[in-house]
Structures are given as structure tokens and as C-alpha cells.
Amino acid sequence: NGASLAVWNRFSYQSLYDEAHLQYADKEVFAASDTTNFELVLDALRLSEVICKAVGHDPDDVRVRYRSVRSALFEAVRRVHVPWDRLPEDTLTKIERELRRYQTIFSTNYDLLAYWSIMSPSAPSIRDYFWNPDLSFDLTNTEVSGSAPTILYLHGAIHLYIDTRSGATVKRSSSAGNLLDFSDLRRRTRRPLFVSEGRSRDKMRSIRRSDYLAFGYQSLAEYKDPIVIFGHSLGGADAHIAQAIRSQANRRVAVGLRQGPSVDTIKSKVGIEQALEGQRVTYFNATTHPLGDISLKVVS
Hints:
By secondary structure, the protein is of the alpha/beta class.
């Protein structure tokens, strides 16, 4: 959440699971699934309902749990996310202006800051692969022409969902402020696609089940140019991201670090050097990067 934290302090939360007001029975489902990943639990409950119907069991209890977990997730996101009406237009313009400098953007944040910034009417196009008429992702239609930048959401995003009937990943078309209402995602045929937390192996399970997420991950693994890493520690929960970056050996990688006690900086560098073994790593002060500029901060 580092890049978003430069804008909104509430993005400092450690886990949506900890933020969510889950009922005891909901927590039991998470425990039985051995995960704190909402995306995985919601999908498991959806499949459980299908199985109950197929074998003649009453699925009502499963439906109740699905609605309860989904509502807890949406409420937790609303509590920690910066509201649309609190964001100055100038902040979104500055974010978009910086993103536009890069040919390819890989985002592991699932919040709406990047999306809100690139959907500004005055902003030049940053393409997101959801260019079909129904705003769906099509694995057979990913060829990029021209020079406009592209963005891929490696862990999904709040504005994306899975159509459970077709399996397609679709971009939500609600107006900017309404994207945090989640009213359209309450349809049973729509499952939110954002990998909210959990272990690296849980995230990879979600990635492998989604053609969009798998395409994004493969695109990162095949990316050969130098990379700037901003707002990411490459910790154990995101070991798969570091693995994808290491797919290209001896690449130049610039990593932004926040200023702090020297012992913390040394610890961060050791972790990054281990995660990016085989890469040519240099470091810069994150506050000197436009995405870390103090002027972006919205007082919470």
C-alpha cells in the first residue's frame, strides 16, 4: 500500500481481514479455508452453493455466509479508502501525469487511486486492456498498438469483477464516486476481483484461476526493460512478484525507500537484495519521487 499511503493515511492498515467486522461463523469459514483472503473465501462459498444444489442439500446457510462475508468486505474497504469527494482534482492530475511517463505500469494496489487518475476526462489515454464494448478483458485481444502507456492490476482492483456465468473479468462502469458503493457487486453473478491480503501462495491461487490476472503476471515475468519499484517492500507475502521480476536476469531496478532510522533502511535493503537476487539494484529516496510528494497527502 506504499504508493497509496502517500495520499491517504488510512491505507496503512495491515489487513482487510483485521479491519472487517466478521461474524463468528464467518471467521470459522476463513479458518476452515486456512486463509484470510476474501477473494478465495467468497469463491469457495459460491462453489459450495452450487454443490449443495447439485446434491440436493439446502444452500441457505451458505448463501447467508456469502452475503455476510461480502458485506463485511465492502464495509471494511469503505472504512479504509479515501472518499472520492476528499480527493482534490489536482492530486489525481499529478498521479496521472507521473504514470503517463512510463510505458508500462504494473500495480499491486487494488484501491481506486490509479483508476480514478487515468479516467479523468482531460487525461491522455492510459490503456487498461478492457477495451471491448462490454468492458470485459479478452485474452485473444491484447495486442497493443501505438505509444500510449498500459496499466495492469496484478492483484485485481476494486473496479474489476468476475462474471460468474461467463468467467470473464469485467471493468465496472459506475461513476467515480459510486465505485465505493458496491451496489452493482451485490448481484450474485458478480464476484469482486481484488486479492486483498494473505500469503503469496494464496495470491498465486487467485492469479492462476483468472485469465486476466495470469496475463498480467506473465506480462511482468516477460518484461525486459528497467523497472522502477515504488511503494513496495517485496516482502514474503508478495514473493511471487519478486519471482516474476527475477525472470529477467541482470536488469536495472530502481527501488524507492522511505527515510527512517538507518537500521530500518539497512533491513529493508537486505530484504530487497535477497528478493531481487541477480538484478542490478539502486535506491532512491521515495519522497523525491512525484508519487511520494508530500503535496499529494490528503488529511484524514
